[in-house]
Amino acid sequence: MTISKPPRAPTGLKARGSGLWREITTVYALDVGEIQLLRELCKVVDRIEELDRILAEDGLLVTGNRGQLPRAHPLLMELREERKAVVRLVAELALPLPGEQIGRRRSPQQKTAARYDLREA
């Protein structure tokens, strides 16, 4: 459902987070709880972009301050956790799939099946 005046994006969001905010709030009318989830999702998306930028600069391997053998950059673990948070927040947000009036939480298999059913219709 398209809404007439979407809520303003929270202050402090960067380009990717505010773009996601606009993309979702111009299409869906969200309740207070969903707005909180979306706010957190947008912040996480911005953090992922920042982590990606740092890893692109530093590389995926780092050496210790005493010259130890290269090891995985410590931010890789944080990036993995942030990506898990995106999956969790998107699932909790439960936006409707095309053709649905209301969204609902689904397992990955249920999402695939629902999308397949929509294409067959």
Characteristic key phrases:
elongated; 3% strand; single chain; two-stranded antiparallel sheet; mainly alpha; 121 residues; 2 strands; Phage_term_ssu_P27
Helix content: 55-70%
Rg measurement, Å? 18 Å
What profile does the largest beta sheet have? Answer: 2 strands, antiparallel
What kind of oligomer do you see? single chain
String of helices and strands:
HHEEHH
Strand content: under 5%
Query: Would you identify the regions where 5 or more consecutive residues have pLDDT less than 50?
Result: none
Pfam families: Terminase_4 (PF05119)
InterPro entries: Phage_term_ssu_P27 (IPR006448)
Describe this structure in words.
This protein is mainly alpha-helical and 121 residues long. The chain has one domain (15-118). 58% of the residues lie in helices and 3% in strands. The protein has helices at residues 15-25, 32-58, 75-93, 108-120; strands at 61-62, 71-72. A hairpin with an 8-residue loop joins β1 (61-62) and β2. The longest helix has 27 residues, at 32-58. The mean pLDDT is 85.
Summary?
The protein has about 120 residues and is mainly alpha-helical. Helices cover about 60% and strands about 5% of the residues. It holds the Pfam family Terminase_4.
